[in-house]
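Notes for week 9. Today we move from apo structures to complexes. The key idea is that a small molecule is not decoration. When we ask for a structure prediction with adenosine-5'-triphosphate present, the ligand SMILES becomes part of the input, just like the chain. The input block below holds both the sequence and the ligand string. Read it once before you look at the output, and try to guess where the molecule might sit.
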Amino acid sequence: MKKPKELKVKPIKNGTVIDHITANKSLNVLKILGLPSDESKVTLAMNVQSAHMEKKDIVKIENRELASSEVDQIALIAPKATINIIRDYEIVGKGKVRLLNEIKSLLNCPNPNCISNTIEPVTGKFYVITKEPVILRCYYCERLMEEGEIESQF
Ligand SMILES: Nc1ncnc2c1ncn2[C@@H]1O[C@H](COP(=O)(O)OP(=O)(O)OP(=O)(O)O)[C@@H](O)[C@H]1O
Ligand SMILES: [Mg+2]
Ligand SMILES: [Zn+2]
């Protein structure tokens, strides 16, 4: 029986393809990016085969080129993700996400008494203590946060 060549992601003219996302984490990646939004055209592929890893997710965002400050937060949950910038159907830029030393305004401290939870304008801020596995420390109360607690916030 003939099988068509598998096309995991249909071509886009302009935008961003986030490839090599840890399998099943693409919905969390969208959440980090504040997607979907009303104007955005987003396509997902979940649990597809990959040459680089056993299985992966892919996210394709049309007409939006993601800035590195946005994509680096993705490293928290998909450390192997690759960012491909597409212009006129061609890849014009390719890069890996990097876990930075500080995570700002994305996560909440699990300590209910932390000032980031009790004082309104203060938002969560964490230092990255180790990267594999990811362990964070609250800038305000020094509470440690591990991967399970990080993932449960998305
Ligand atoms: N115009 C496009 N529209 C949508 N997706 C695209 C487009 N061009 C490339 N892609 C996707 O972007 C990803 C990277 O494409 P590329 O051709 O660099 O593959 P690759 O050689 O396997 O790269 P890598 O080494 O990063 O895995 C693939 O998932 C590919 O399907
Ligand atoms: Mg590839
Ligand atoms: Zn705290």
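Residues 23 and 48 are 8 Å apart (CA to CA).
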